[in-house]
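OP here, attaching both records as promised.
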Amino acid sequence: MALTPHQRTVLNYITEFQSKRGYSPSLADLAIAFGVSSKNSVAKVVNTLVAAKQLEKDPKGRIKIIALAHGEEGIAPMTLPLFGPIAAGFAAPVEEHAEELITVEQYLVKDRTSTFLLRVKGDSMIGAGIYEGDIVVVDRSKQPKAGEIVVGILDGEFTLKRLKRDKGKFYLMAENPEYPDLFALEELKVAGVVVGMMRKMVV
């Protein structure tokens, strides 16, 4: 199925948007980019591109990340060898061969379109091994549960804490005894659940 010039332009915009930002544009983003007032018009173009097998959608209807062919511009995932396991207690014989090749994204990210990174500031989560300057991997599609570390929105302000529940009421708890538990005066929302953490070692 041959694409019209406008369809090709939309497809190129989506590809470039994903390459630069690491996630897909929403219909609202596309409407703004192409100067239209209704999302329906861009939705029709997107659906046409899906029918033409130029795009795919995830179960929630969001545009999937386009897999670039070898040699095309974009951010290619870095594949690294995974060795192990390694003993954290007594020494073990050396394993000379990698178990497999993985990418950091493959290991930490379940759904790229719903995942973002957040740099940590402060020392309220040091008891959970999260320090200032660390980068946490946050999944905004994961259903939060009591006991998980989350990005909470407490009365409109963002904070990284552990989600707790007492007598049916949710609140946020720091992993540092110097910080008090946080209860919402009006509203507590969860922007995402922490599913991983990265730290650059100083040598």
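Record two, same layout:
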Amino acid sequence: MLHLDDIASHDELFAWTGRLLPQVIEPLRRGETAHYAPYDWRARHFGPPRPLPPAPVVLVEGVGAGRRALRPHLAQLLWLELPHEEAWARGQSRDGAEQREFWAGWLVAERRHFAEDPSRPFADLLVRQVMEGYEVLPGPAGPTGPDQQVTHGDGPSAMC
């Protein structure tokens, strides 16, 4: 799994596609181990490179994972349905008072990102939290078609 919080930084909240594609997506597509330098949000710098080995499924998690530049590389796009205020509250609770200034800028940046490059309309599946667990529903993009790659079990991705 790749957390986009490891790819983004204070200076590049959403301008990280130019690093993600060559460092992660392209090596994985070739069946090679990817290497990326995770960002330390408290120290405000990138750390030593971390390996991400190829796998039948690699989950790219985080805001911006469904962006236009990445969609051609995705087998499926899942969208977690969560009200903005709840998502932001979870993040602020996780990060504490020391990241309060960051969150003020994040709210503006996230709104701008989705206004310019929405992800939800392209989601194959919608995931909603329910009382116990999660509910998975068809997304706005509709069911997976014959032109999309889907992972079936433990083998490599294959065309349907």
